[in-house]
């Protein structure tokens, strides 16, 4: 997969930043400086190194190329809406310098057919974990947090002993259990004490599932504990810190929140007679649902009890500047060293790779490596990806239930491939 600028070899010693003389810019801009960050030694599905010959979109990516990419993505999404697998979706593809594809399609609510807009909010679910990891690394840059410190330094009210480290919570290697989060929501007008619910959950799950560092075990509860860590290290409420210190510097603070804004919020949907819809309806409280349409079960607005594992509400356009910042040679949010830590592939004590970075998944599309994070749950799903070798990032949000990573990645693979094929040849 070669983009129209020169093809360069990515070696094991390559780091963020480009060799002198690299071409830079989009839609005709040209400078003799670094084009976009690169990371070397991205793992393939089998754990090997990939991206040996990859070039980034640059001076010869014309406006017509982006338009062609947008048209291809729109057609693919429209076909999925006609097929009954989507209701509405937002999709963006960005570089460090500009937004190349910016689409919204379908409706916010199948019952009203109100068009889904660029600024419509959706639930990001576990995409929030990627934001939480950035928040933690920003505190590391500030000297307020140590990844290798024990959890107990920042939050002592847990039953897991002194061996659990902050880094392990971020990497899902702490051994913290992960009870099914089906009841971890409130609905508008329902009172709930977030801290008390966490204490009750810890009391009900008091034992580690594995010794810290010995196994990979994905844990929403581990990220709920990170919410407490970030509050202790920052001295701020978690939501306030994220909006001021993460989304604020990239200009998205007013487009994000940790509670549903009824005026801007899409309705979530689940196929009425599909297996997922039937199972969720059987396992979840009635208050999580509102009136159905002939084809779709409609989800009530719900609020996750823990914010750091899945509590973000936003539009895809609000996430795009955050992803673009991660592609900058020197981001506003993180130092290059902190970004390296964020995206470094993790392993357990035996040396076995986990398949994750810190809060982000390691993956590849047609041998081009990325760091990404899927999110999905009742009514919504989405994905964010950063392709450093291409200087490209993408974000997808859709108001249809997905609860596993596979279908979400398949949708992103299809859409991202269309973009890359149009801007690279």
Polypeptide structure, described:
The structure is a single chain. The chain folds into two domains: 63-126 and 252-345 and 371-423, DD-peptidase/beta-lactamase superfamily (Beta-lactamase, 3-Layer(aba) Sandwich); 129-247, Beta-lactamase (3-Layer(aba) Sandwich). Helices cover 30% and strands 18% of the residues. The radius of gyration is 21 Å and the shape is globular. It starts with 7 loop residues before the first strand and ends with a helix. The model is unreliable at 4-59 (pLDDT under 50). Helix 1 runs antiparallel to helix 11 (405-423) and helix 2 runs antiparallel to helix 10. The chain has a seven-stranded antiparallel β-sheet with strand order 7-6-5-19-18-17-16, with helices on both faces. With 425 residues, it is an alpha+beta fold. The protein has eleven helices and 19 strands.
Compact overview of the structure:
This protein is of the alpha+beta class and 425 residues long.
- Average pLDDT over all residues: 87
Number of helices: 11
One letter per element, helices H and strands E, the order comes to: EEEEHEEEEHHHEHHHEEHEEEEHHEEEEH
**In total, how many beta strands?**
19
Shape: globular
Write down the CATH topology of the largest domain: Beta-lactamase
For the record, what CATH class of the largest domain applies? Alpha Beta
Which second-level CATH architecture of the largest domain applies?
Answer: 3-Layer(aba) Sandwich
Beta-strand content estimate: 15-25%
Largest sheet, strands/sense/barrel:
7 strands, antiparallel
Structural class: alpha+beta
Gap from first CA to last CA:
7 Å
Indicate the multimeric state. Answer: single chain
């Amino acid at each position: 997969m070669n983009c129209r600028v020169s093809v360069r070899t990515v070696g094991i010693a390559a780091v963020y930043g480009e060799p002198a003389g690299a071409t830079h810019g989009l839609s005709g801009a040209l400078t003799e400086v670094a084009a976009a960050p690169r990371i070397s030694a991205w793992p393939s599905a089998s754990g090997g190194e990939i991206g040996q010959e990859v070039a980034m979109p640059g001076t010869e990516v014309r406006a017509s190329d982006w338009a062609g990419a947008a048209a291809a993505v729109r057609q693919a999404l429209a076909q999925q809406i006609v097929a009954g697998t989507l209701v509405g979706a937002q999709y963006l593809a960005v570089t460090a310098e500009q937004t190349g594809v910016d689409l919204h399609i379908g409706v916010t609510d199948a019952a009203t057919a109100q068009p889904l807009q660029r600024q419509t909010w959706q639930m990001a679910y576990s995409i929030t974990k990627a934001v939480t990891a950035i928040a933690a690394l920003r505190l590391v840059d500030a000297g307020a947090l140590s990844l290798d410190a024990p959890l107990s330094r920042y939050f002592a009210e847990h039953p897991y002993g002194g061996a659990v480290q902050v880094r392990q919570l971020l990497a899902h290697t702490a051994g913290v259990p992960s009870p099914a989060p089906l009841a971890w929501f409130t609905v508008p007008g329902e009172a709930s004490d977030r801290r008390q619910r966490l204490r009750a959950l810890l009391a009900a799950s008091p034992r580690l599932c594995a010794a810290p560092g010995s196994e990979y075990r994905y844990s929403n509860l581990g990220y709920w504990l990170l919410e407490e860590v970030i509050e202790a290290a920052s001295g701020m409420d978690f939501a306030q810190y994220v909006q001021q210190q993460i989304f604020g510097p990239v200009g998205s603070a007013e487009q994000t929140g940790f509670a549903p804004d009824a005026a801007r919020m899409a309705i979530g949907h689940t196929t009425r007679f599909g297996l997922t819809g039937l199972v969720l309806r059987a396992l979840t409280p009635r208050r999580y649902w509102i009136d159905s349409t002939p084809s779709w079960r409609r989800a009530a607005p719900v609020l996750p009890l823990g914010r750091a594992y899945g509590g973000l509400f936003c539009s895809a356009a609000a996430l795009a500047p955050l992803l673009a910042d991660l592609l900058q040679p020197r981001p506003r949010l993180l130092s290059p060293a902190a970004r390296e830590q964020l995206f470094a592939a993790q392993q357990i004590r035996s040396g076995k790779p986990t398949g994750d970075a810190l809060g982000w998944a390691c993956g590849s599309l047609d041998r081009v490596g990325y760091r990404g994070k899927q999110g999905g749950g009742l009514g919504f799903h989405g994905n964010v990806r950063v392709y450093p070798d291409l200087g490209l990032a993408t974000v997808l949000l859709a108001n249809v239930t997905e609860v596993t990573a596979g279908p979400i990645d398949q949708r992103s693979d299809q859409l991202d491939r269309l973009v890359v094929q149009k801007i690279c040849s």
